[in-house]
Design goal:
The chain is an all-alpha fold. Helix content is 77%, strand content 0%.
Length: 223
């Protein structure tokens, strides 16, 4: 994984700050029930975008590890899962707050909510599974296979099943997606940069964690 340069760091900070400030200041559509909570679109949905992007990278590196056996691929697969979980927790937390103000409860029996929770538990299990092995090669192979399984399960529970049943979420269960009726141009000016900013933030955090792992490994070798 290449170094996350100063230019990318500055761009990430600008995009994230632009989203945090602009998302609170711009005018938003006056919709029934949602009202001002629609601003959470800039933080809740974008957290999920970043999480899914990182899990895709982890999934790819797990496949690469099974083909190459390189420890660097296993390391990247693990770190992208760890950082992806952070954004997943952010997505769940902001989603629960949004549900409280729009649906009346922090958690409702919605297939997409339940699917997201199951997916997060599957990835938490990935971390537990890794820690149960002492042999590096065995840990890498078993973890890679499980990671592929967890990714497929996430796609199933978050994207496929909610579209086959009734769901309160926009774009699922017959409900129109946000872009279909209320994501106006002013919101797009915040929403799309927010997606990029959150993904870049995830890559930046991942890059830092990778570099720390390499430093730790080098220090252990020098002892």
């Amino acid at each position: 994984m290449q170094r996350f340069g100063i230019g990318l760091q500055v761009l990430t900070i600008i995009l994230v700050m632009y989203t945090l400030v602009g998302g609170l200041l711009i005018s938003v559509p006056a919709l029934d029930i949602l009202n001002e909570t629609i601003r959470n679109l800039f933080y809740h949905v974008t957290s999920w975008f970043a999480m899914i992007f990182l899990f895709i990278l982890s999934f790819s590196y797990s496949i690469a590890y099974l083909r190459s056996g390189k420890s660097s691929h296993d390391l990247l697969a693990r770190i992208f899962v760890e950082v992806g979980i952070i954004f997943g927790i952010a997505g769940l937390t902001t989603g629960m707050l949004w549900a409280k103000y729009t649906w009346g409860a922090y958690w409702v029996p919605d297939p997409k909510l339940n699917g997201a929770a199951i997916s997060m538990l599957a990835y938490f299990a990935y971390i537990v599974l890794r820690n149960s092995f002492s042999d590096q090669i065995q840990r890498g192979k078993v973890s890679a296979v499980y990671n592929i399984f967890a990714f497929v399960m996430m796609i199933l529970f978050i994207f496929i099943l909610p579209r086959m049943t009734d769901s309160l979420h926009p774009g699922n269960g017959g409900n129109p997606a946000f872009s279909g009726y209320d994501l106006d141009n002013s919101m797009r000016m915040i929403f799309y940069p927010a997606i990029i900013g959150w993904i870049m933030l995830g890559l930046w955090i991942s890059n830092i964690k990778v570099r720390l792992e390499y430093v730790k490994t080098k220090l252990n070798q020098e002892k």
